[in-house]
Amino acid sequence: MGAELIVPEDADVAGAVGAAAGSIRQRSTITVTQPSDGIFRVHLLNGPIDFNSMDAALKHAEDTACDDAKAKAEAAGARGIVLSSMRDVNIVQLPGDKELFIEAAIHGMATGTLR
Fold it and tell me: Which of 17, 50, 73, 90: disulfide with 102, CB 3.0–4.6 Å?
């Protein structure tokens, strides 16, 4: 063909860039509050749900956030989806070894590759 081959300076990382560009990441965040002592409210799109236990409320929020993130990733065409979650819980220490739950943001993340 008589063409000159020109290799770009960063050609060795082109595969890594393509892999990153070919991934899908979706995230969903759910807030948990405490409107009154002993009641933990999970704020969902279709309305709030109350729990008598902070652990149960956080677990429900985490499961729902991950499910939502997964559904978004699937809708975007992802496959091989890996789920993860993170809890950002705001608790204030009070005198007498007491704690006051203020709020929690629960993040569900779904990561996959393009089909």
Answer: 90
